Amino acid sequence: MRALPATVLAVCGLIASACGGTGTGGAAAGQAAPATEAGQAAATAPTKEAAAKEAPAKDAPPKAKPLEGKVVVIDPGHNGGNYRAPKAINRKVNVLTQMKACDTTGTSTNDGYSEAAFTWDVSKRLTKILENRGAAVKLTRTSNNGVGPCITERAAIGNKAKADAAISVHADGSAPGNRGFHVIMPKKINGPVDKVVGASGKLGVAVRDAFRKGTGLPYSTYIGRKALDYRSDLGGLNLSTVPKIFVECGNMRNATEAAKFRDPKFRQKIAVALANGLQHYLQS
User: What is the pLDDT of residues 86-132, one digit of tens each?
Assistant: First the structure.
């Protein structure tokens, strides 16, 4: 047999080495031994911590809104069209302690910004805040271009709604040098309001404290004691069978307070403060 050339022998040696020829380590030099299937599975299996991170998070239950299930009636004082109907608003109605006009036009700033427009704007803002907090809100009027309703009807709206709290939003028209806000609460009159006089007092204090903190306005310098006033001549209070208060947000005839009431940002502050007071009472 003819001898193979040296180059052929060299190639054969290389093939033998690559195709399973044993070396001193059992694996090709410089290469790691192939992993077994079990080893590969162990290497690729996620840890418990990693699996927990990769698992889809369960949807957290929605947080309950703080005023869920509560009913609030907001009474924006007066109405923008009252001045056009003097006969209707001057009609006398029985408020149990006396006969009074069905409604009035309200006051205004010296430059003509009406109390009706102010109370309507604040009440709409307050409605939105309370609804966002889960409350069901009922307004005693739906616009600022109508007439009335009468003070007796305003009370009846709160009663029919079985409100957990009712608030009548106003601003005063006192002498220019007078300043500050005050809250009006009912007295016992041997009438339907008697059973909620105590609760109305607690509502009034809660709103008073939140209003002072939220707006920075001072207590009234001319009426009430520490911004609290008790009256028996207001039909909206006398006829209420639910806890109810009036808030006089300040004096529209005072130049400093009139300028604040003209500012939408300040009206928002007022609305937030009133909402906080109502919430504090409703959750207490």
Answer: 999 999 999 999 999 999 999 999 999 999 999 999 999 999 999 99
Q: Distance between CA atoms of 86 and 90, rounded to whole angstroms?
A: 6
Residue 258 near residue 266 (C-beta atoms within 8 A) = no
**Residue 232: Cβ-neighbour burial (10 angstroms; 0-12, 13-18, 19+):** middle
Q: What is the pTM for the complete model shown?
A: 0.79
Residues forming a β-bridge with 166: 73, 244
Tell me, what's the pLDDT at 49?
54
What radius of gyration, in Å, describes the C-alpha atoms of the chain? 38
Q: Do the Cβ atoms of 258 and 212 come closer than 8 Å?
A: no
Most confident of 1-15, 34-48, 162-176: 162-176
Read off the DSSP letter of residue 164.
Answer: S
Given the residues 54, 68, 153, 248, the one annotated as active site: 248
Q: How far is CA 150 from the centre of its chain?
A: 29
Q: Give the CA count within 13 Å in the CB-facing half-sphere of 130.
A: 30
Whether residue 131 lies in the annotated active site: no
- Please list, in sequence order, all residues whose beta carbon lies within 8 angstroms of the beta carbon of residue 138, skipping any fewer than 6 positions away: 71, 72, 73, 74, 157, 158, 161, 163
Helices in 137-263 by DSSP H: which ranges? Answer: 151-161, 197-215, 235-238, 255-262
